[in-house]
Amino acid sequence: MGFGSWFFAATYDAMLKGVEEAGLTAHRTRLLADVSGRVIEIGGGTGVNLPLYTNNVTELVMCEPAAQMAKRLEKKAAALPSRAIRISHDAAEELHEPGGAFDVAVSTLVLCTVPDQQRALTEIRRVLRPGGRLIFLEHVRSDDPKLARWQDRLNVVSRFVAQGCNCNRDTLTAIRAAGFDVTSLTRDVMKKAPPFARPLIVGTAVRA
Questions:
Q1: Domain edges within the chain
Q2: Residue 3: which pLDDT band, with cuts at 50, 70 and 90?
Q3: Residue 197 DSSP code
């Protein structure tokens, strides 16, 4: 485990504090308010979403393959002993869960970073029951060609600074290509984030 991974995990919450307060937490709260049943979250990170799940969630599996992130996630989960939370170290591309096991999958600021986005989405679809929902909040490639070109130029910097985060992925197209029907979609910007990382999509997709 390198210093970069440790430092990124140790400072992640502090780095995102301004962005969260400027609107990201509000998006998370609205997205997760009606989530219920058996839920799997990929890339649970430090557990930012944990306090936002309601008692309508009967089981919550939080997947986090990065060891330093997982330590923080486990600590936050342990502080919620009344909740049925299971921590998994699975990567999104290889979920050791039965097919059709979950009602909802949650991905927030994760599909930008997974090494193989299409494989991750295929796995997410596999573990969802027919009609199950993918709840997503992701920063994406801009629709503005000028900004998109800058995202392409700066992507190598983004990947280095943010531990593999790609700022130029067309994630919405990838979700649809993986066999999901997008049923709700909001486009916004992540205020206080660097301009090349601001374009944001928030929504729900149903396993077709």
A1: 3-207
A2: low
A3: G
Angle CA(50)–CA(52)–CA(95) in degrees, nearest 5? 45
Counting every residue, how long is the chain?
Answer: 208
Q: In terms of DSSP bridges, do strands 199-207 and 180-189 run parallel, antiparallel, or are they unpaired?
A: antiparallel
Please identify, in words, the CATH class of the domain defined by 3-207.
Answer: alpha beta
The residues pairing with 181 across neighbouring beta strands, listed in sequence order, are 206
Cα 130 to its chain centre, rounded Å, is 21
Q: What is the pLDDT of residues 73-117, one digit of tens each?
A: 999 999 887 778 999 999 999 999 999 999 999 999 999 999 999
The CA distance from 86 to 40, in Å, is 9
DSSP string, 123-159: HHHHHEEEEEEEEEEEE---SSHHHHHHHHHHHHHHH
Residue with tokens 């679809």: 125
Per-residue DSSP letter, 165: -
How far apart (Å, rounded) are the C-alpha atoms in residues 51 and 62?
A: 13
Angle, CA 183 vertex, CA 92 and CA 50 arms, to 5°: 45
Query: What pLDDT does 4 receive?
Result: 64
HSE, side-chain direction, 13 A CA sphere, residue 115: 5
Determine whether 122 is exposed, middle or buried from the number of CB atoms within 10 Å of its CB (0-12, 13-18, 19+).
Answer: middle
For residues 148 and 150, give the distance between their C-alpha atoms in angstroms, rounded to a whole number: 5
Is 90 exceeded by the pLDDT of residue 13? no
| CB distance 118 to 178 below 8 Å | yes
